[in-house]
Amino acid sequence: VGHRLSGLHENLLLCLPVLSLACLLVMNGLIFTALLVAAIVTVWLRARALLAWAKRRGSHGLPLLTGWLIVNALYFPLFFITLPPFGDYMTVGELVLFWGPAFVVFRLLHYIHQACKSRVDPFAPEAFGKLLHFIVHFPSFWFGPYQKFSQFSEEVASCKERQTGKNQRKGWFRILIGVAKFMVIFHAINIDYFYPHGYY
What is the DSSP string of the chain? Predict the structure, then answer.
């Protein structure tokens, strides 16, 4: 039974990135999701090349700078995207929508940094799956919290051991507090200050 549960747990962990991608596909469309996956593949392949380069040089400085430029070059075209106009007040809203992709950039830069310093092995068999999950994790994709790759991977790997009754009660309590904050504070502020100006 323990072996079956372990296999089920591993299959679930494999399904989580796919589920997150499905959510992004529904919420943001095919083009956004495809470009995101292409960026992740590009950074993963570059991380492998940059790690090999850093080992040959005996220094991670120049490879790290190159990785930083690559990730920012992937992000730069987003500034030229024009969103559908919903009114004359859309300029600030356009900037706010880029906060989600900014989280992606922070995470990709962090992964490149960890790879160049040999703290992450992009050549490991499960490396791409872990990076994909780290980037597309839907609950934290838009608003965080920002986590280091090692912290995120450790939490995912140890979630089975941490699923105790006490932790589940704490988790449900935190979820209810979050819903209460959203319904009472955020929604009330929206109605009073944002909705009258066309921000939804």
Answer: -HHHHHHHHHHHHHHHHHHHHHHHHHHH-HHHHHHHHHHHHHHHHHHHHHHHHHHHHT-SHHHHHHHHHHHHHHHGGGGG--PPP-STTHHHHHHHHTHHHHHHHHHHHHHHHHHHTTSS-TTSTTHHHHHHHHHH-GGGTTT-----HHHHHHHHHTTTTT--HHHHHHHHHHHHHHHHIIIIIIHHHIIIIIGGGT--
